[in-house]
Design goal:
Its cofactor is Mg(2+). One of its GO terms (cellular component) is cytoplasm. The protein is an alpha/beta fold. It has 3 domains: 81 residues, Udp-n-acetylmuramoylalanyl-d-glutamate--2,6- Diaminopimelate Ligase, Chain: A, domain 1 (3-Layer(aba) Sandwich); 220 residues, Mur-like, catalytic domain (UDP-N-acetylmuramoyl-L-alanine:D-glutamate ligase, 3-Layer(aba) Sandwich), CATH 3.40.1190; 154 residues, Mur ligase, C-terminal domain (Protein-Tyrosine Phosphatase, Chain A), CATH 3.90.190.20. The strands form 4 sheets. The protein has an 11-stranded mixed sheet with strand order 9-8-7-10-6-11-12-13-14-15-16, sandwiched between helices. A 6-stranded mixed sheet has the order 17-18-22-19-20-21, with helices on both faces. Strands 1-5-4-3-2 form a 5-stranded mixed sheet. A hairpin with a 2-residue loop joins strand 23 and strand 24. Helix 3 runs parallel beside helix 5 and helix 12 packs parallel to helix 13. It is globular and about 80 Å long. 50% of the residues are buried.
C-alpha cells in the first residue's frame, strides 16, 4: 500500500522524505522487518524502539514512524514524526488492512471476570443464529470454523487488524473480542470502530501492572470514553462501578442487572449441577450452564444480541442451547461419582463467585474440596485474600502451585496461607506439587463430594521458571480418579 494512504487521518508533526512510496508491511519489532517495511518505533516498558531504527533500516525498512527523529537522517528513508507512536500504530494498522471494522460489527467485552465466557458464548450464539463471526479471546482466535492459537487476551494492533481483515474477507458479519486493561493502556484497540461494548464487572486484579485500583478502573473506563456516538455501551449496574464506566461515554447506554431495575433484567429461579432455570425480561428458559456469575454472563450476551437487532425470543431459544465454555465452571464426574469442577478463577472475586455458586447448589451432606494457588510474577496483594476465601467457603482447601513462573512456589503459598483466619486453620493444608494436591483431594473425597480445581481452567501447561510443562487439570483429575478407583 502507498505510504500516503497508510497515513490517512494520522496526526503527523513532521515528514521528511517521499510519502508516495509503496510499503510492504508494518512492523514495530525491528527483528521482523523485511524489505520496504514501515517500522514504527515504540517506547516500551522493557526497551525503546527508537534504539532499533538503524537496525530496521539495515533490514530493509523504507519508512520510519517515530516520536523523536534520529540526528542523522538517511535521504533514502521517509521519516514521519508523531506525538505518540503506540497510539498511531493502531490507526496505521487499521488503514493498512483496509479499516476492517468499517465492514463488520465489532463487539468488545471488558471487565475483570467473565470476559472469556461472555465473548465465547456470544460467538457461539451468533453461530446458532446462522451468522458468521470471528472470536478474539484468551483461549483462542477463531474465524468462523478456523481456529488459531491465542497469544494475548488482546493481541497487538497489527495482529488484531490482520485477523479482522481476514474475518471480513471470509464473509464474517460480526467479530467478538475480549478487551484487556493492558490492551487499552497500550492503545492496541486504537483505530477500531466498536458497534457494541460490554462491561462485566471490576474487581481486584493486575495491580502488578496498574499499581492502584483507581488506575486500573480508569484504564477500563477509557475504553468506554473512546466509543463513538453510533456505538452502544451495555454495563452491569449491579457492580458498584458499572455506572462509573459509562459516565463520560458518547455511546448509547444500556444496563443489565439481577438486583436492580435495568434494560436487561435477569432472575435465577432454580439451579443444580445440570443447569439453571432463568428468567430474562420476564421470559423463562433453561440453560445448561451453572453458577450465578454465568447468569450475568448470559444476561450480557442476551443484551448485546438484542442491541444488535436480534429478536428476544430467538435469542433466548439459542441461549438455551449454549454449552459450557472450556475451563469455565466445567463439570466432570468420576466413575465413582465424585463431581469435579474445573474453573479459571484466579482473582478473589472469581474464586468467591465459583465457591458461592457450588455452595448454593450442594446440600451440606457433600463436602467441597478446593485445590488452588496463585500465579507468580503477578499481583501479590490478592494472595492472602484468596487464602481467606477458599478456607472459609470450603470443607477443605488445598493450597498448591499455579504458574509460579520465576517465583519460589513455597513463598507464594506462604503469602496465601497468611490470609487464612485462625478458626479455619484446621480446614486447609498445603501441597506445593499440583498433581499431588489433586491426588490428595481425590483421596479425601467420597461419592457425591465436589472437588473444585481453580486457577488454570483451559490452560494445558504449568509455567515453572520460564519453562512451560504440559499440565491439564481435567486430564490429571480423570487420570488420577481412574487410577485410584474413584
Amino acid at each position: 500500500m502507498q505510504l500516503e494512504k497508510i497515513l490517512h487521518r494520522i496526526p503527523v508533526l513532521e515528514i521528511h522524505g517521499n510519502i508516495q512510496r509503496e510499503v510492504s508491511e508494518i512492523q514495530f519489532d525491528s527483528r521482523k522487518v523485511v524489505a520496504d517495511s514501515l517500522y514504527v518505533a515504540i517506547s516500551g516498558s522493557v526497551s525503546d524502539g527508537h534504539s532499533f531504527i538503524d537496525s530496521a533500516i539495515e533490514k530493509g525498512a523504507n519508512s520510519i514512524v517515530c516520536e523523536e527523529l534520529p540526528q542523522n537522517l538517511n535521504e533514502k528513508i521517509t521519516y514521519i514524526k508523531v506525538k505518540n507512536t503506540a497510539k498511531s500504530l493502531g490507526r496505521l494498522a487499521s488503514n493498512f488492512y483496509g479499516n476492517p471494522t468499517e465492514n463488520l460489527k465489532l463487539i468488545g467485552i471488558t471487565g475483570t471476570n467473565g470476559k472469556t465466557s461472555t465473548s465465547t458464548l456470544l460467538f457461539d450464539l451468533l453461530k446458532l443464529l446462522n451468522h458468521k463471526s470471528a472470536l478474539i479471546s484468551t483461549v483462542e482466535y477463531r474465524i468462523d470454523e478456523e481456529i488459531f492459537p491465542s497469544t494475548h487476551t488482546t493481541p497487538d494492533a497489527i495482529t488484531l487488524n490482520k485477523i479482522l481483515r481476514k474475518a471480513v474477507d471470509s464473509g464474517c458479519e460480526y467479530a467478538v473480542m475480549e478487551v484487556s486493561s493492558h490492551g487499552i493502556d497500550q492503545y492496541r484497540t486504537e483505530g477500531l470502530n466498536f458497534a457494541v461494548a460490554g462491561f462485566t464487572n471490576i474487581t481486584h486484579d493486575h495491580l502488578d501492572y496498574h499499581k492502584t485500583f483507581i488506575e486500573y478502573l480508569n484504564t477500563k473506563k477509557k475504553f468506554f470514553d473512546n466509543l463513538s456516538p453510533e456505538a452502544t455501551a451495555i454495563t452491569n449496574i449491579d457492580d458498584k462501578n458499572g455506572n462509573v464506566m459509562v459516565q463520560n461515554t458518547k455511546a448509547t447506554v444500556k444496563t443489565f442487572a439481577m438486583k436492580t431495575l435495568a434494560d436487561y433484567h435477569g432472575k435465577l429461579m432454580e439451579a443444580d449441577f445440570n443447569g439453571m432455570l432463568l428468567q430474562f425480561n420476564s421470559k423463562e428458559f433453561w440453560s445448561t450452564l451453572s453458577g450465578k456469575f454465568n447468569v450475568y454472563n448470559l444476561l450480557l450476551v442476551f443484551g448485546i444480541a438484542v442491541e444488535l437487532g436480534f429478536d428476544e425470543v430467538d435469542v433466548l431459544q439459542s441461549i438455551s442451547q449454549l454449552k459450557r465454555v472450556s475451563g469455565r465452571f466445567e463439570l466432570l464426574k468420576s466413575e465413582g461419582g465424585i463431581f469435579f469442577v474445573v474453573d479459571y478463577a484466579h482473582t478473589p472475586d472469581a474464586l468467591e463467585n465459583v465457591l458461592d455458586s457450588i455452595n448454593e447448589i450442594r446440600s451440606k451432606n457433600e463436602r467441597l474440596i478446593t485445590v488452588f494457588g496463585c500465579g507468580g510474577d503477578r499481583d501479590t496483594t490478592k494472595r492472602a485474600e484468596m487464602g481467606k476465601i477458599a478456607s472459609s467457603k470450603s470443607t477443605l482447601a488445598i493450597i498448591t502451585s499455579d504458574n509460579p513462573r520465576t517465583e519460589d512456589p513455597t513463598e507464594i503459598i506462604k503469602q496465601i496461607e497468611a490470609g487464612v483466619d485462625p478458626q479455619n486453620f484446621s480446614k486447609y493444608t498445603s501441597i506445593p506439587d499440583r498433581k499431588e494436591a489433586i491426588k490428595m483431594a481425590i483421596k479425601f473425597a467420597e461419592p457425591k463430594d465436589i472437588i473444585l480445581v481453580a486457577g488454570k481452567g483451559h490452560e494445558t501447561y504449568q509455567d515453572i521458571d520460564g519453562v512451560k510443562h504440559h499440565f491439564d487439570d481435567k486430564e490429571v483429575l480423570l487420570e488420577l480418579a481412574a487410577k485410584m478407583g474413584k
